[in-house]
Specification:
The protein has 201 residues and is an alpha/beta fold. It is built from six helices and nine strands, in the order E-H-E-H-E-E-H-H-E-H-E-E-E-E-H. Helices cover 29% and strands 25% of the residues. The longest helix has 13 residues.
Length: 201
């Protein structure tokens, strides 16, 4: 499994602690790789780190699973002056088509690709996934509350799959009284792991 743009490593760490996956992480920020490796170490899970741009990665063999919470804010929104936050948030650092093209190149023939993205860009997402033979098998929109529009979409893809797309019911994070929904609580409990957080300047 490869965690793309891993940050402090929490996504890959949770998955490799719950499933029989050998973990690799890639991030072009050296500080994030240091945090990620430390978090894997304190959870006693082996990890192969790559401190480089994902687009330049040349693995010796394809990955069976690729996961990512990539930068997806579009140009035109107010940008952070903090370089670290800027790289973590804005799609200029990992453009959508280049992202999917690279996943297609280094994912095994029937490999799986899991990611989240800006829900408003769903048209471009589906178009680019089709171009690079990444079939969206499961799609789920995330809503902060049931009466709010979705700002995030979760997508599970299979490389070269012929399956039709299943659209699941919305994932809602908060009840109207600002308390976490039961499903959100279950997700947080499932993802529990010992980690340190990056300190932002």
């Amino acid at each position: 499994m490869l965690d793309v743009g891993c940050g402090v490593g929490i996504v890959g760490l949770v998955l490799s602690s719950k499933f029989p996956l050998s973990a690799s992480v890639v991030d072009k920020q050296a500080s994030m790789i240091e945090y990620a490796v430390h978090n894997y170490n304190i959870n006693q899970i082996a990890v192969e780190p790559y401190n480089q741009d994902f687009l330049d990665l040349a693995p010796s063999k394809p990955f069976d699973v690729i996961v990512s919470n990539p930068p997806f804010y579009a140009d035109g929104v107010i940008k952070s002056a903090n370089d670290s936050l800027h790289m973590a948030r804005y799609a200029t650092h990992l453009p959508l088509e280049m992202f999917f093209a690279k996943v297609h190149k280094i994912l095994s023939t029937q490999g799986r690709f899991f990611f989240c993205y800006d829900a408003k860009q769903i048209g471009d997402i589906f178009s680019m996934l089709k171009k690079y033979h990444l079939t969206p098998e499961v799609v789920r929109f995330v809503h902060s509350k049931i009466d709010k529009e979705s700002k995030l979409v979760l997508i599970a893809c299979r490389h070269n799959s012929k399956a039709s797309t299943k659209v699941l019911p919305p994932l809602t994070i908060f009840e109207k009284n600002d308390i976490y929904t039961d499903e959100a609580k279950e997700a947080f409990e499932f993802a529990s792991a010992h980690s340190i957080k990056a300190q932002r300047g």
